[in-house]
Amino acid sequence: MMGRLRPRTVGTRMTKSLLSKMQTRIETITEESLAEAKRIILEGGVVGMPTETVYGLGGNALDDAAVQKIFAVKGRPADNPLIAHVHRDYDLSRLIDYDPPYAKALREAFLPGPLTLVYPSTGKVSRYVSCGLNTLAIRVPAHAGAQAFLKEVDLPIAAPSANLSKHVSPTSAGHVYDDFNGKIALILDGGECMGGIESTVCDITGEVPVILRPGLITKEMIAKVVGACEVYTPQLQSGEKVKSPGVLYKHYAPRCRTRLFSASALDEAVEYAKECERKGERVAFLCDSGIGKKILCPATVLDLGGTPEEMAASLYARLREAEKICDRLILIEPTDRTEKMVGVLNRLHKACASVDVPH
Ligand code: TXA
Ligand code: MG
Which residues lie with the beta carbon below 6 Å from any ligand 1 atom? Predict the structure, then answer.
């Protein structure tokens, strides 16, 4: 979005009485900004940090107060655990109780990268990170800026996506600024995220890996390395305790009304757009490039691109763009149903859910 046009220091001029509002600075990643980030982290503060998937809101995973601050700043439900981010050379035995036999192959195949592994935990990190679960989700991000930051702090960094709870995840420093201006001191600017949707979360505490949240590392890719992979779907009716509380919450929602249509119902969607416009709503469509070409009505068309990678990389930026320009966003499901689309479709459906529902 407009992040790159903003000055490095972005603060509002305020009267002295209002100065308790923190100044939020966006800094490119340099020795100086990394040292500043480290200082904030050691003081128990939180920092906006880039990763190859989405930006994170990072704090010291060993520090109770810092982890609680993350929950408070983000408005995150207290039962939704956080991922601990570590440098590629971090000694995992400090954090995990047991390393399943197939885990090494997964790490070698995909890390650093957009795969979060859920291990049995030693309980060394703050108890607030895993919200009382006896497991710990660990991620080794591939983004060079994230690696530099993790090396500098030499700590496990608890970091959820750097968006206000339920809002669309951030894929640029400008998005983080839009949600947290005045609430955090520093955002490390590592450019636009290449991946665009959050990491695949995979539970490796059992005999077979189980995907808790789909992402760009697919079930098929994991099964190819390990021999098998399952996908978790919560059985809420049975009263079973949910394995990954995050799956229960509404997520990724733009601040405009949304309605999802399948690609086969395009004519119906266009009629619906006209009806909304007649009622005075500003309407926009969000769809893949192929479908976009077929929409013959004056409403704005936000283009997701053509490939699964393009759609993943652009989805959140387009959703954030949509909430600024329209009252009603009409999403058309992409026709591509290949394995890489599972994560993109999951986020698209969640963005349109009107209530907290499991997916
Ligand atoms: O790509 C990503 O994963 C980004 C970047 C910043 O690394 N992070 C991210 O964090 O998406 P967050 O907090 O928005 O989502 C973490 C997900 C949630 O669905 C949470 O429930 C799940 O991971 N999770 C965390 N710890 C878990 C655990 N111990 N067991 C099961 N699920 C866990
Ligand atoms: Mg999130």
Answer: 51, 53-54, 56, 80-83, 116, 118, 130, 133, 135-137, 139, 141, 159-161, 198-199, 201, 212-213, 243-246
DSSP string, 21-37: SPPEEEEES-HHHHHHH
Q: Whose atoms come closest to the Cα of 51: which ligand?
A: 1
AA letter at 212: L
pLDDT tens sequence for the chain (359 residues)? 333 334 343 334 444 444 457 899 999 999 999 999 999 999 999 999 999 999 999 999 999 999 999 999 999 999 999 999 999 999 999 999 999 999 999 999 999 999 999 999 999 999 999 999 999 999 999 999 999 999 999 999 999 999 999 999 999 999 999 999 999 999 999 999 999 999 999 999 999 999 999 999 999 999 999 999 999 987 655 566 666 655 555 677 899 999 999 999 999 999 999 999 999 999 999 999 999 998 887 789 999 999 999 999 999 999 999 999 999 999 999 999 999 999 999 999 998 875 443 33
Please give the residue range of the domain that contains residue 326: 257-357
For helices 308-325 and 341-352, angle between their N-to-C axes, nearest 10 degrees: 20
| Three-class DSSP labels, 131-146 | CCCCEEEEECCCCHHH
The residue whose CA is least distant from atom 31 of ligand 1 is 244
Mutate to test the pocket of ligand 1, among 116, 117, 168 (most ligand atoms within 8 A of CB): 116
**Does 292 reside within a domain?**
yes
- Which CATH number goes with the domain that contains 323? 3.40.50.11030
**How long a stretch of residues is the chain?**
359
- 53 alpha carbon, closest ligand: 1
